[in-house]
Amino acid sequence: MKTAVILAARKEQYSSIPYPLKPFETGGELSCLFDRILNILRENCIEDIFVVVGYKKELFEKYASENLHLIYNKDYEFTSSMGSLAVAEPYIKDDFILIESDTFFEKKVIDELAKIQHGNCFTITEESGSGDEAFVQLKQNHIQRISKDRHQISNIDGEMIGITRIARDTYYQMCREYEHATNLRVNYEYLLLDNTDMIDRPCLRFNNLIWGEVDNADDFLNLQNKIYPKLCRKENPYDRNNLLAHLQTVFPDELIDDNWTIEQIGGMSNKNFKVTSPERKEYVLRVPGVGSEGMVERSNEDVNGLLGCQLGLNPAIRYFNDKTGIKLSDFIYNAETLNSGTIQRMSNMKQIAEIFKTLHSAKIRMANEFNVFQEIVKYERLNDEAQGFWPDDYQAVREKVMELEHYLNTVGVELTPCHNDLVAENFIKDEHGKIYLIDWEYSGMNDPMADFAALFLENNFSEENISYVLDIYYDGHVEANSHQRILAYQILWDFLWAIWTWIKEAQGDDFGTYGMDRYQRAIENLQRLN
After folding, report:
1. I want to staple 1 with a disulfide (CB 3.0 to 4.6 A). Which of 45, 114, 164, 508 is the partner?
2. 438-476: buried (b, 16+ CB within 10 Å) or exposed (e) per residue?
3. Strand residue runs (E) in 222-344
């Protein structure tokens, strides 16, 4: 693959800012989406790059070179993606990768797409919940239908990413159809469907992908302050020899050499790697992240994680070192990691409510009590030791937060086994639809309302879905004060994880505005509770 086409002509409906070129700062350096796309293409030896420009075309002129060609779509105000793609036809002689310039994505998307030798290929991932999804329905791993209206698709198998490999012959047919189109605002993916049989529409699926689009100011701030720091943490290089040494400890009787493959698969506070042995056995290796010392009691995690396995909630753990936090567990084949969109599907919410029932009613005693007020005191000490950031109004806010202990004791606190870290990424669904709950680092005996508070807060649950989950959990008899208790714990979680973020950043991590966003939300919810 030597050719790429980047669509950069359109003006966003509610903004005059060309977001692909808008610089943002991360890790002390300025970057922009367009530069990132170009760097990824060049890393894959893609030599001929055609950029279709329109709105603010003069801003792209500095990029023009022998191998980067600017093509002007004079009708950009009246056309959409197919209109821009069609004006490039005189210049395109080969198959190409098509990229929409307002898209950010992991490098591996282009790495994998560039390996395909011929034909068309879509890229998809799980539903994001962004509200602007191009949903796809598959049949035998080929694209059967695409629609932005979920009511038109019986089985939503994922969401289309704005990156596609298009064969030259298919492109020619798409352009011929567009010449006779009466709707000049048609998007290219629909003409791609019209001019191919399903067998010619394979797709690459990227599970747990960090990606999105920047169409407005909110999208840009989310990219700059949250998503891009997360993307950088995932793509940071790691020491392969160090990882091989960890594996040698895990498998002392095995020869650990270059025949073992290691692929980073993300993680917020830790680094997670998919490990494949020469015999094709697959595992997940967890390496604790920076600043985790003192924040997590690994011996508690060891005991509680095994209890989760016994309850059928946690995948099998093959190795755990309670001194270093190194963990090896079974890799769930064809697994889907839930996100804030997919976690709120009715079938998933129902299964999560049942997971909570199993966990909270289990006649077991976890190795520790997770007392959020004691954790706040501990994290404050760690942040002081790390010489971390403190907001000017911290002491005043802290006083109000700590008063919640009396409030909760008054309304009643029940202690049961709890997970306490209910981000969507900790729910893994296997190919048969079973959901597992992973990463028991912060687990311990706690109030079940704390688990609900984390679930609803971390994943931005709608009020309707909150009621749905609670109704299933309580078999239709929701406790009268449950919503107020949940709100109190949401304040506590935001306050605690804000301090957690400042500790991490004091030790070299970058979370953008994540910590202050949580801190401010805690303050806002204190006003709601009062």
Report:
1. 114
2. bbbbbbbbbbbbbbbbbbbbbbebeeebbebbbebbeee
3. 261-264, 270-276, 282-288, 317-320, 327-330, 336-337
CA atoms within 13 A on the CB side of 470: 22
Q: Does position 268 have pLDDT exceeding 90, yes or no? A: no
User: Other CB atoms closer than 10 Å to residue 305's CB: what's the count?
Assistant: 22
Q: Which of 259-268, 366-375, 408-417 has the lowest mean pLDDT?
A: 259-268
Residues 6+ positions from 98 with CB-CB distance below 8 Å: 4, 5, 7, 85, 163, 164, 165, 166, 188
Burial group, residue 165, by CB count within 10 angstroms (0-12, 13-18, 19+): buried
| Tokens standing for residue 94 | 């080969």
H or E segment and range at residue 518: helix 514-529
Coil/strand/helix, residue 100: strand
- pLDDT tens digits, 195-238: 999 999 999 999 888 888 888 888 888 888 888 877 776 766 56
Give the burial string for 492-523 (b: 16+ CB within 10 Å, else e). bbbbbbbbbbbbbbbbebebbbbbbbbbebbb
Burial classification of residue 21, based on how many CB atoms lie within 10 Å of its CB (0-12 exposed, 13-18 middle, 19 or more buried): middle
Is the CB of residue 460 less than 8 Å from the CB of residue 468?
no
Report DSSP state, residue 508.
T
For 71-102, the pLDDT digits (tens) are: 999 999 999 999 999 999 999 999 999 999 99
- Angle 270-273-275 from CA coordinates, rounded to 5°: 150
Q: 140 CB contacts (<8 Å, ≥6 apart)?
A: none
pLDDT tens figures, 344-381: 999 999 999 999 999 999 999 999 999 999 999 999 99
> What is the C-alpha separation between 229 and 27, in angstroms, rounded?
8
Task: Give the three-state DSSP class for 430.
Answer: coil
> How far is it, in rounded angstroms, from Cα 73 to Cα 485?
56
How far, in Å, CA of 123 to CA of 41, rounded?
Answer: 16
Report pTM: 0.72
Report the pLDDT value the prediction gives residue 263, as an integer from 0 to 100: 87
Tokens of 38: 């170009």
The number of helix segments (H) and strand segments (E) in the chain equals: 17, 23
